[in-house]
């Protein structure tokens, strides 16, 4: 698959001595949605800021569509749109003027039809003549997205775009993200809402302490690193695991009504058949069976805690 952003051996150490990034290598595929997950201070914002030309790298290189971000700054900046975490907007200008001015900063010719459709897609058209100070926090977040898209970038970075916004607005934003991606825009987002990354991303990258722990197709990641659990509901309460079941590393639920069996989906044999046979030999009566898959959040927590 063709890469639109290539990052090689990228490191950043600030004057204080803090190393925010440690030799990060990453190829971002054209047309994908890549979610970057990591705890606060992991290096996500620093990585995005370097690619967007806001922060200088200590070592390493970044190219966008074949252009070096340092040598070919104008070309790369024209290819990139950035929605920052902070609500960095003025107070007294109108929504329309703000977005129109942002387009002009990139040397793009006027395109009223494009900006009108953009504001309509973001539910901002009715607010086009409103001053920014009159808008809610959620509406200001939409304006930031409109500004980032005003010059029709090929790559869009969303740094915690739904932080502090209500559920309805969050869902509207993800619909917009999908629509943009369908039109060919490559999307890179950071988020603390892991369930959103699980729903929307094609690939997931996990960053911790400045290092990129992995980048993997979301489904492959959950298949390779996820575990399945079999929840066995019993007709009677138990407080100890019978000796006949000792080899299965079972856990007992707090109320004693369930046994939990964790197994590897990659193994040729899951052990479920023999477990149920041995369970029957103990005299315990089975009431119900349920299985569950590890979530992306489970995988994320396990990887970061193991770092």
Key words describing this protein structure:
307 residues, alpha/beta, 6-stranded mixed β-sheet, 4-stranded antiparallel β-sheet
What is the strand and helix layout of this fold?
Blueprint (H helix, E strand, L loop, with lengths): L2 E11 L5 E11 L3 E5 L6 H8 L7 E6 L2 E2 L4 H7 E4 L11 H11 L6 H10 L15 H13 L5 E5 L7 H16 L3 E5 L3 H7 L2 E6 L2 E7 H8 L2 E7 L16 E2 L5 E6 L8 H10 L4 E8 L2 H11 L1
Number of strands: 14
Return residue spans where pLDDT drops below 50 for at least 5 consecutive residues. none
- Indicate the mean pLDDT: 86
Which strands sit side by side, in order, in the main sheet? 6-7-8-3-9-10
Shape: elongated
Please describe what this structure looks like:
The protein has helices spanning 44-51, 73-79, 95-105, 112-121, 137-149, 167-182, 194-200, 218-225, 272-281, 296-306, and strands at residues 3-13, 19-29, 33-37, 59-64, 67-68, 80-83, 155-159, 186-190, 203-208, 211-217, 228-234, 251-252, 258-263, 286-293. The strands form three sheets. The protein has a six-stranded mixed sheet, sandwiched between helices. It is 33% helix and 28% strand. The chain contains ten helices and 14 strands. The chain starts with a strand and ends with a helix. The longest helix has 16 residues, at 167-182. It is of the alpha/beta class and 307 residues long. The protein is elongated, with a radius of gyration of 25 Å.
């Amino acid at each position: 698959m063709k890469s639109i952003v290539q990052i090689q051996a990228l490191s950043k150490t600030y004057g204080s001595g803090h190393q925010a990034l440690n030799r990060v290598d990453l190829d971002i595929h054209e047309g994908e949605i890549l979610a970057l997950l990591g705890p606060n201070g992991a290096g996500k914002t620093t990585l995005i800021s370097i690619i967007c030309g806001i922060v200088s790298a200590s070592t390493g290189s970044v190219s966008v569509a074949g252009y070096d971000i340092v040598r070919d700054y104008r070309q790369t900046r024209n290819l990139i749109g950035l929605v920052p975490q902070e609500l960095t907007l003025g107070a007294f200008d109108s929504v329309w003027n703000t977005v129109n001015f942002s387009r002009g900063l990139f040397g793009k010719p006027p395109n009223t039809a494009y900006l009108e459709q953009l504001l309509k897609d973001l539910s901002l058209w009715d607010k086009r003549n409103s001053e920014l100070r009159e808008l809610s926090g959620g509406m200001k977040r939409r304006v930031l997205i409109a500004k980032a898209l005003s010059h029709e970038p090929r790559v869009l970075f969303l740094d915690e775009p739904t932080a502090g916004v209500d559920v309805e607005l969050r869902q509207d934003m993800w619909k917009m993200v999908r629509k943009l991606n369908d039109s060919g825009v490559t999307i890179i987002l950071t988020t603390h809402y892991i369930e959103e990354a699980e729903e929307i991303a094609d690939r997931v990258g996990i960053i911790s302490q400045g290092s990129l722990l992995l980048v993997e197709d979301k489904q492959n990641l959950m298949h390779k690193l996820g575990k399945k659990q079999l929840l066995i509901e019993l007709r009677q309460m138990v407080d100890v695991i019978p000796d006949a079941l000792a080899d299965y590393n079972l856990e007992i639920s707090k109320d004693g009504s369930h046994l939990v069996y964790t197994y590897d989906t990659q193994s040729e044999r899951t052990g479920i058949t023999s477990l149920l046979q041995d369970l029957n030999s103990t005299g315990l009566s089975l009431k119900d069976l349920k299985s569950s898959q590890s979530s992306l959040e489970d995988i994320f927590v396990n990887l970061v805690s193991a770092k």
